Amino acid sequence: MRVLGGSVAKRGEGPLRDVLRKESLVALDARRKAYESLKNAKDIQAYQSRLRGHFIESLGGFPERTPLNARVTGELHGEGFRIEKILYESQPGFVVSGLLYLPLDGKAPFPAVLMPCGHSSNGKAGYQLPAMALATHGIAVFCFDPIGQGERLQVRRDAKPRDGRALNPLVDPTNEHTVLASAPILLGRNLATDMIWDGMRAVDYLETRPDIDAKRIACAGNSGGGMMTSYLIALEPRLVAATPGCFVTTSARKNEHPGPGDPEQDIFGQYTYGMDIPDYLVMAAPRPVLILSATRDYVPIAGAWEAFRDAKRVYTRLGYPERIDLVETDAPHGYSVQLREGTVRWMRRWMEGIDEPVFEKEAHQFKNEELHCAPEGSVLKLPGARSYYDLNRERAAALAEARKPVWNGLTDTARRERVRQVAGIRKGDALAPLQIESKGTFERSGIRIERLVFKREGDVPLPGLRFIPENPSGRICLYVHGGGKQADAGDGGPISRLVSAGTEVLAVDLRGFGETGMGAWRTKPATVAGDNGAEFLLAYMMGKSFVGLRAEDILSVANAWRMRPEGPSGPVDLVAVEDATIPALHAAAVEPTAFSSVRLHRAIDSWQRVVVARIPHRQLESTIHGVLRTYDLPDLVSLAGHVEYIDPVDGELRASGTTGSQR
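Now predict its structure.
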């Protein structure tokens, strides 16, 4: 059933990734031109303001400031410092757990470092050494658990997929972030939005402390904490310095290897408005920033030096070249001792006026359980606590109420135009027509099958199989399946039954399906992200949706098939299965005359199901940024005409057990 020929691609290789990387490089080249135009302070300030505005817009904006309801739940003592266990609410009922390390030597108020955690499953308990090193040198540290880590786990660890096996991969915090990512994308937000807000509210909390100098608050973090440090120094003006570790590089290097990070590292449309990773440092200028990097890190070290050079030129043009620097250590990914020592020295230089070598001493670390801030080590077990799911459900309900009168006030023509805009579905005249190339025919079980490739210059080739009935009835069916064109092509299967009834079936792999699928090489788990999570995120950073791209594939294939001299004279039916269903519904909604009927097998009937799902099943690729501000899937059904749902699913890794149709 293979059409494209050649051997199966190696892990992480394929035309889908190749096309997206080339497109991203074009966008990043445009960013480079904008950067190179920065010649003076006025240019730089305008650049910073523009990027910061776009960044916040992509994040969906931040919530209102509400009472922190902060409390101290316990205390520990170490050598040269003490720890207060803190709980505060970054949003009503949304509790953040953190540890405030306070020096025993020196005089309050102390300078303080906000320390967001990297991807440690035990959260703040995994960052004791850098916190202790700062505290024993006279600098307070507030280290807090990110969403999905430490005491803030959101996914139940007893959750099981449909085969009954424990969903062990979700114990990894990176994977939990993937589980949590789909809902905020649909709402026009990002998991990063609430993670950043947790950090901003942590600054609010530190400002309430009489023993903390509110004018001397900085930020330091490694890996995922390096990402959050980069975001916070770019967006939070109260921070006076930063040391992002094992994160700073360039997108061009990172997209090559290891590939896009988990969803909170990827900001919607950032390449389209020219925001690359070095720009977090540019936005921070001229506040002091030290890049922490490692030669054996999977975060590309060459990109770290390129980012440093970008930032250095901006700092120099502002008159502060000494405020940006880089530490490189011969070590793998991690907050290694040289990076910890570099952090302490940098913070002492810029917050205490002390510039001297720092060498870390051995320190006793507390057990995870000793550092719990909540009585049972879980903030969700506190009275009145709300989960991340609760926040997103409330946001989705509010959007549903807000969009209803707007949608109802539009004509169908205007609605279709809105769908095109939100999903990114271009009209046919904006796309070069697909060329059809035959790769020969073969017979199987008495059915003649033609191998086809639908091609467009610079785009992903779409392999297809044409199943030719012996006694044609005149009906034509375009068949798209998330598992690939061969998934339902077995003897006696759905395609075979259609062909036996005289229907000519054209089964096509949409981009990322079948032969062009990427095999979940980067973003895990595939049961949540699908097989092309990394490629979805790359497209997401270019402001594109896979739903829109795949809907274009469907419409382009259907149009190319009609344009043949022997094109179909009868009606064309559209059948879509599983991951192909949402693109198919969009294609039919924007061009209802393209198909005489639409049958959706094992589809969700509303994106609200993704919002409420504890573990969404392969839904990341089927999200569209901010779509629930404008419409939901039921709104598309009336635009598409006759739509039949067959064996619908609830998006929770299991079939709903019901069948039905919507008209």
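The radius of gyration is 27 Å.
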